[in-house]
Each structure stands twice: as C-alpha cells, then as structure tokens.
Amino acid sequence: MRRLVFSAFLLFVGIIIGVALVAEFHSLPSGEAVDNRSELKPSGVTDTQQIFVSVAKAVTPAVVNIAATRVSKQGEGIPGLPFTDPLFKRFFGDDFFKSPDQKGKRKSESLGSGVIIESEGIIVTNYHVIEKADEIIVVLSDKREFEGQVVGTDPKSDLAVIRIDAKDLPTVPWGNSSTLEVGEYVLAVGSPFGFTQSVTMGIISAIGRENVGLTDYENFIQTDAAINPGNSGGAMVNIQGELIGINTAIFTRSGGYMGIGFAVPSDMARSVVESLIKNGEVVRGWLGVAIQNVTDSLAKGFGLEKAQGALVSEVMQGSPAEKAGLRRGDVIVQFGETVIEETNQLRNIVADAPVGRKLTVRVIREKNPINLDVLIEAQPNDMFSRRGGGDDKGAKPKRGSTRLSGIEVMVLTEDLIRQFDLDEASKGLVVVTVETGSPAEDAGILKGDLIIEVNRELVADLSSYEAILSKAPKNDPILLLIGRQNRTLFLTVNP
Fold first, then answer.
1. Which of 40, 223, 343, 464 lies at a C-alpha separation of 20 to 30 Å from 266?
2. Per the residue annotation, which of 157, 198, 205, 232 is the catalytic one?
3. Is 397 a domain residue?
C-alpha cells in the first residue's frame, strides 16, 4: 500500500513539472528557443577562433611568394625536385614551365615561399627554393613585385637569406622553438601550388625529428598542418604569432599532403640566418670525429650500462679531438653541459658551439669516465680528406678460416684494392665473402669491408686475426671495427 501511494505521488510531481515547462516554453518570444542552442557551445570556442583569426591577419602580410627562374642551354639538366625519393618531396613546386627560345635555351620556374624577418627587406626561405636561380621574383601580399638578391645560402640546413629593395615591411617576430611541446597548435602559412597567403592549422606532432635524410643538420619540427608543394620557405607560427619554424619538406607517397610535414626550428634557423647576414656564410664548430649511435649490442661490447651517447669510430688527423686526446672507441656521453643521447644531437651541438671556446667533453673509455678539454675550431671545407690511413697492404692472398661465422677474409693486395675500389693506404683484412643468412650478414658486414680491429685489438695480419678470435669467449659477441667507404664504424657479430 505504501509503495502504491509513493508511486502516485511521483506521477503527480512529474505532471506538475511538465505543465510548468510547457507554459514557460510558450511564454518565450518566437526564436528565443532557437537562440538558446548557442549555450551548447563551449565557452572558449569563440575566443579560440578569434585567436586564430588574429594570428592569421598578423602573419600573412609578412609571408611572400617566391618565383625562382633558371635559364639553361639545351642539353643542360633542368633542376627538378632536389629529392627524387618518392617518400620525401621537397616543396620546390611541381609547376615547372619549360619553353625553348630562339637561341636554344629553356626556362624552368619553381614556386616557393619566404618570411620577412626585417622590415628593410630581409627574407628567409629554403635554399632549394632559390638554388641556382638566375632570377628571383618576390611577390608581397599587396601584389607588389621585387627582384630578390641572394645574401647567403646554407645547403647543409637548407636555408637561404634574400634581400629586396623595400622598406617598412611587415615582419614576423622570432619565437623560441626550444620550449615547444608536442600537442601545441601551430599555423602554416605559404603559397601551396601558387595559392598565396594560404593558412592551415594543426598541432606539433613531434620535435627533434632527426635521421630523416633531408639535410646534413636535422632537428625538425613535425606537424600535421596541411602543407604542400609551394609551402617551402613559408612560416610556421604559434598562437602568439611568433615564427617557430620554416616549412621545409613533407613525407608523401602521392606528392601531396599526407599529414606529415617538417619545419626547420626557429632556434636553428635564426642562428644560420644571423651568420649568413653577418658573414655571407655559416661558420660551424668542429670537433673532428666520426661517430655512430650506441646500440644495445655495442653497449655490451664496450661494457656500458645502457645504449647512450655517441661512439667515436674515427679521430681525424690534426683535429680538435685529436689535440684534446680523444680516441677511437671513446663514447661521448656529455658535451659541455649537455648530456648526449645520440649522434645527431652531438653533431648539432658541436656545430652551434662558438669557435675558439674551450669545452669539456666527458667520455667513457674502457668503462671509465674521463673528462677532456677541447678547443672548438671552425669546420674546415676539406674535413673529409683529413682522415687517417695506413701503409699495411699485406703480401699474398690467403683465405682465413675463422670463428666469425659466415665470412671469409683475405690479406690486402694491390689487386684486391683495385677490385674493391679501396684507398691505397687502406689497412686490415678485406671481407671477400659474406654468407646469406649468417650472423655476419645480420650484423651488417658487407663484401669489401675492411676488418681493422677485433675486440678492440688491432689486426695486423691473418695470424693476429686468428689469435684474437681464439681467445674470445665462445658465447660472447665479437666487436669489430670496420672500414667502409673511407670511414670506420663498429659492428658486433653474435655467436
């Protein structure tokens, strides 16, 4: 009985509330009920939209369109996309206009973008946009056209600075790319396919992206903001309207946008630009070592606790590293105040190091930490010719039966040097056979490689090679120093 009374009471209350709501609805002016739907929007949506609108209005006037033209004689190659790999297409632009003239010449034109960074007509863009150009035409947002003059270029970072004869131009202020975080909003501004002052929005997908294979010095910002051919040299800005990157390349299998784009971070770009303006070239720091990443197997071979740092596989003659006492086999774990995780990080830090400054390098040598003071020098143009050699050629071809499964080696002769196109000063034993599916092949050993060291001991001939291997623990990996294409690297072969 109590349950029945309670249910009747709830029904009565529901009817009263319903009648009240209907009466309230009919008392509203027509259209007010529709307007109430705006209350469903999050309170910050309008403010966020206005931020993007404001940033776009502030930035687009300072982003220019660049048309670079090259005239070549018949028979000369017309520069196309600098990278033909279908996975990586530069934004050099697919709009190439070629037309033979009466004198047998032809013209190619590439489209790109640029960012005004100084009101007196200083513009930063990508090197590949203006590479080998005979004429550079810059079109401003107000449709005015100017002829661009090259101030300086840096192919190693794919950046260039040009100048136009104009004053009181709008600019984009530099931002600080070192504080960027994954997930931040960014806008990409440029001229994709010639559509000037195009703005797209996305987020930062990754930072410090390296080993992409586009430039010598890589520390890219990755974004999903839509960018396409023609965007090269354009601006990547944050929601404060600050320049935090120069759009440079895309990852694509179709030639167009696929959600992955790369930009040179502003900190690197600003350093390069300032050097180009001041000196006409980029002066980079130089250590003088060949380095490779420390893998798990290499870490075990060198007695390291974890795979970290940059392994020195070669020290160049007369280099700052040689003068400071660095040795092949050292693992650089700290440079100055920076802990080194891998090779590209060290390469970029050394390049940015001031020439003439003495810095402390911390290395792990034979499981012991050592601090060395190195005086940074300017990177020489002939640094790859400074590598050391030797005069140990061997005398007579002889195959070696070794405990290294899957390879055969021979003592170097003049015939083998010619056969494998080796330097006459090469030293070590040459690999003449690598069996398919063997541990040696799995380790990355190639036919024509030179075995210079085994387990950190120098290989002088076949006898020393066999002796070193014979005393190696049976089930332990074997650490090799390999010579390949005028460089050296460490590899480990598992038993």
1. 343
2. 232
3. no
Type of residue found at 149: Q
Question: Do 114 and 130 lie in a common domain?
Answer: yes
Q: Which amino acid is at 191?
A: S
pLDDT digits (tens, 9 = 90+) for 100-144: 444 445 566 668 999 999 999 999 999 999 988 889 999 999 999
Give per-residue pLDDT as tens, 439-453. 888 888 898 888 988
Instruction: Answer yes or no: is 258 within a domain.
Output: yes
pLDDT tens for each residue of 292-318? 889 888 888 888 888 889 999 889 888
Q: Where are the alpha helices (DSSP H) in 36-139?
A: 45-59, 127-130
**Number of domains into which the chain is organized:** 3
Single out the residue in 282, 315, 341 at which a domain terminates. 282
Q: What is the pLDDT of residue 165?
A: 96
Integer Cα distance of 495 and 478 in angstroms: 8
**How many whole angstroms separate alpha carbon 118 and alpha carbon 294?**
43
CB of 236 closer than 8 Å to CB of 244: yes
Give the start-end residues of each E strand in 74-173.
88-90, 105-118, 122-126, 135-139, 145-147, 149-154, 159-163
Alpha-carbon distance 414 to 395, whole Å? Answer: 9
Q: Do 294 and 160 reside in the same domain of the chain?
A: no
The pLDDT value recorded for residue 332 is 95
- Among residues 113, 128, 154, 224, which one is catalytic? 128
Section 285-290 average pLDDT: 91
pLDDT at 390 > cutoff 90: no
Helix ranges (H only) for 158-265 are none
382 & 415 share domain? no
User: Is residue 9 one of the residues assigned to a domain?
Assistant: no
300, containing H or E segment? helix 296-301
Of all residues in the chain, the percent with pLDDT exceeding 70 is 76
Same domain, 369 and 413: no
Can you give the residue range of the structural domain that contains 470?
Answer: 407-493
Task: Kindly report the CATH number assigned to the domain that includes residue 331.
Answer: 2.30.42.10
| Domain match, 291 and 417 both | no
Rounded distance between C-alpha atoms, residue 214 and residue 217, angstroms: 9
For the cut 50, the answer to whether the pLDDT of residue 204 exceeds it is yes
What is the dihedral sign for C-alpha 388, 394, 399, 404? negative
Catalytic residue flag (residue 128)? yes
Q: Which residue has the tokens 């021979």?
A: 410
Q: Using CB atoms within 10 A of its CB, is residue 350 exposed (0-12), middle (13-18) or buried (19+)?
A: buried
Q: Of 247, 282, 317, at which residue does a domain stop?
A: 282
110 noted as active-site residue: no
Based on the residue annotation, tell me whether 266 is a catalytic residue of this protein. Answer: no
Answer yes or no: do 148 and 89 share one domain.
Answer: yes
Within 10 A of 326 (CB to CB), how many other CB atoms are there? 23
Regarding whether 303 and 253 lie in a shared domain, the answer is: no
Q: Which of 110, 157, 158, 330 is catalytic?
A: 158
> What is the longest distance spanned by two Cα atoms in the chain?
113
Q: For residues 78 and 160, what is the distance between their CA atoms, to the nearest angstrom? A: 21
